[in-house]
Write a structure and sequence with these properties.
heterodimer; A: 368 residues; mainly alpha; 17 helices; 0% strand; elongated; B: 168 residues; protein dimerization activity (chain A); nucleus (chain A); Transcription factor bHLH63 (chain A); transcription (chain A); DNA-binding transcription factor activity (chain A)
Chain lengths: 368, 168
């Protein structure tokens, strides 16, 4: 058995030597049990957590797999994927090295674990990964209870206490692991190679029934989408509430729609002096125009400077947008009605200035 | 100005080419006289706005609900639209009440009943985004994100065109 430990040591982990030596000492008395071997490697993987392996971890851990030559070592491979992503998770303090020997962490090859492997490899979120590790301990808990008699000889008193702490933690997870084996999809695991079970883990202190799980998954989806929207809408970094965000989104969409209307009105009014422009160059010109990339920061109406004729047209358009949508004929009738009052209504519009950003940039561009 | 970085298949370029084509078509149909009445300008504005919305929706190729809704809105004459929307609204109310049993429906009901503010805002958002009446919150947010992206592109391009026109 010791040569297996040596092979594990040969993996190049920083700061592992102390823990490995301790591990070796403990192992002399252990019987030839794969489970306990696995358990003893827990401190190694705990040390993994402190080390910064990056992408090389998977390659290095395949070596022990070669030495062990067993399918069960899948579970070894599982752990290092899990390990470095814990960072400094304090939950692992509940499983100190002294208690490592008393936990059978790896249950030998259950198909659940293999699904767990593949789903873990796709996981990114720290919480779910942590929970899967706990599920590993939970699954191991079943076999551990069976093998309790064997390992009794190695129990120390404080191990029992620590185990009790861990037990209360993993017990709920264990039972939920069993209950959830039939079912629930994780919203995060995208592909599972062996689609037996997709595990979603309950975090500590949270409800674990299927409805709340699905509810939580839905809520997380929603919050992810709200974050995407936050990136799209300018000036939303400080708003944290959903209602505020929705308000901002609504304002922004309204302002964009109004800008489209104003711009089309402007084009309609300004089209007067245009001859047909060369069609080939124009799209490239237009699309690459950098000044167009700057949208006004405020969500207010864009500012226009229009001559009186255009002001009238703007007025018509505003009337049109305020009234309920009408057919074309009716829409044309309303401007004539309102044209008499248009001059009075022009007063508020005359305070609009040119869009300083866009126009000044455009003049600076000096295109030919 | 660099003319070589244009991605020919990007949303912006697709929209630009379509919109410019529509503009030249509008110009050809009704050439602008120097003295246009407000009525004509208004008509023109309507046509240009419809052209802009249509070309935007076409560039998206009805992969999205809002683009489908926009195209349908612009194509169907108003009386047929009223009939259809009447039927759609009644069936929508039915679905909203009958799906309370299912989990998905429960989600919709939950949202509207959770906070009065949130429900009102959702209704507003549904009105703003074309085709948003029949969607649950999850899809509605997706549609809103894509719609905002396309609207910003549209505004950019139209502003450039307007500036170019105003210069010449």
């Amino acid at each position: 058995m010791l040569h297996r430990l040596e092979s594990l040591e040969s993996c190049n982990y920083n700061g592992m030597e102390a823990r490995l030596k301790w591990q070796q000492q403990n192992y002399v008395v252990q019987n030839n049990n794969l489970v306990e071997l696995c358990a003893g490697s827990l401190p190694q993987f705990q040390g993994l957590i402190g080390s910064n392996l990056g992408g090389a971890q998977m390659i290095e851990l395949k070596r022990p797999e070669v030495f062990l030559g067993s399918v069960d070592f899948q579970e070894f491979v599982n752990f290092p994927v899990v390990g470095p992503e814990f960072g400094d998770s304090e939950k692992l303090d509940l499983v100190p090295p002294e208690a490592a020997t008393n936990y059978c962490i790896f249950r030998t090859s259950s198909c659940q674990m293999s699904a767990l492997n593949t789903s873990v490899m796709k996981e990114e979120r720290e919480d779910l990964i942590l929970e899967k590790m706990e599920s590993a301990t939970g699954i191991g808990r079943e076999s551990f209870n069976k093998r309790k008699a064997e390992a009794v000889a190695d129990h120390k008193s404080k191990d029992k206490r620590i185990k009790g702490e861990g037990e209360s933690e993993v017990k709920a997870n264990c039972s939920t692991e069993i209950s959830r084996n039939s079912s629930k999809k994780s919203s995060k695991a995208s592909e599972v190679l062996k689609p037996d079970y997709i595990h979603v883990r309950a975090r500590r202190g949270q409800a674990t029934d299927s409805h709340s799980l699905a509810e939580r998954a839905r809520r997380e989806k929603l919050s992810k989408k709200m974050k995407c929207l936050q990136d799209l809408v300018p000036g939303c970094n400080k708003i944290t509430s959903k209602a505020g965000m929705l308000d901002e989104i609504i304002n922004y969409v309204q302002s964009l729609q109004r800008q489209v209307e104003f711009l089309s009105m402007k084009i309609a009014a300004l089209n007067s002096s245009v001859e047909t422009l060369p069609m080939k160059e124009f799209p490239a010109y237009v699309a690459n125009f950098p000044a167009a990339a700057k949208l006004p920061e405020t969500a207010d109406l864009p500012y226009f400077q229009l001559n009186p004729l255009q002001n009238q047209s703007v007025n018509c358009m505003l009337n049109e947008s305020m009234l309920p949508p009408q057919t074309g004929a009716e829409g044309i009738a309303s401007p004539s009605v309102s044209s008499s009052s248009s001059m009075t209504q022009l007063q508020p519009f005359s305070t609009w200035n040119t869009d300083p950003q866009g126009l000044s940039n455009m003049y600076n561009m000096g295109f030919h | 100005m660099d003319l070589h970085n244009l991605n020919p298949s990007s949303l912006k370029s697709r929209f630009t080419t379509r919109f410019l084509r529509a503009l030249t078509e509008i110009n050809a149909r009704k050439p602008i006289a120097s003295s246009s009445s407000p009525r004509e300008i208004f008509q023109r504005y309507r046509r240009i706005k419809d052209a802009a919305d249509t070309s935007m929706a076409y560039s998206v190729r009805s992969r999205r609900t809002w683009s489908k809704a926009t195209l349908w809105r612009l194509r169907t004459p108003s009386h047929r639209r009223r009939l259809a929307s009447f039927g759609r609204r009644s069936s929508l109310n039915k679905t909203r009440t009958t799906t309370t049993a299912s989990h998905r429906g429960a989600v919709v009901v939950q949202i509207t009943s959770r906070g009065g503010g949130l429900g009102v805002q959702l209704e507003e958002l549904r009105e703003l985004v074309p085709g948003g009446e029949a969607m649950d919150l999850c899809n509605l947010l997706d549609e809103t994100a894509h719609y905002i992206k396309c609207l910003t592109t549209q505004v950019q391009v139209m502003r450039t065109i307007a500036n170019l026109y105003s210069l010449e």
